[in-house]
Amino acid sequence: MKKSLRTSVLAMRDMLGIEERCQKSTLIKEMLFGLNEFHSSSNILFYVATKSEVQTEDMIRQAIKQGKRALVPITDAENKRLLISELHDFDLELEKGAYGILEPTKIYQRLVPLDEVEMIIVPGVVFDLHGHRIGYGGGYYDRMLESIGQNKGTKACLIGVCFECQLVDTIPIEKHDMPVSRIITEERVIMWRRDI
Ligand SMILES: Nc1ncnc2c1ncn2[C@@H]1O[C@H](COP(=O)(O)OP(=O)(O)O)[C@@H](O)[C@H]1O
Ligand SMILES: [Mg+2]
To answer: Is this model's pTM higher than 0.85 or not?
Structure first.
């Protein structure tokens, strides 16, 4: 069920043309940059988009320009974990790592502990209206988000970003699936769990 939903929504996302994807990604960026929580966060973990995902390059560049501390993941495929690294220059510091995703090369890795992160922009293949998500199937974000909220020292605002075509009413979730507290699409910001 999860698998078939993942496959069918990915196919829909892949059908968006490049131009449409860029336009929608710009709208998502503008909504993100308009959020109060965004203004009050200095340490923001973005993801570096791959394939037909919501594009994040402009978000990262703009955040750096605004003086934010822009953080990006480094994939530790062996342990199925994400490390977090501070990025200073989008043009200079990235190269393809695991799964072909851009990540900081060794000399530009500046590791940052998760408890310093105030906001996490969470990618996903499918989201539902309760904030549940399906990823590519590696469980990477679930493992990282596990310690947020429960571990009282770590409290970051989790923002899922996706296109409208990736939203469904309900996702069949498992115990380890970690929900987000906001979802931004090209049309709206969906908010709940206002406590977070
Ligand atoms: N916190 C976790 N600890 C250990 N294993 C996990 C954790 N989160 C997910 N996993 C494992 O990772 C695999 C993929 O998780 P899944 O939720 O299906 O992927 P995704 O969230 O990428 O769609 C599953 O086998 C799941 O048991
Ligand atoms: Mg999951």
So the answer is: yes
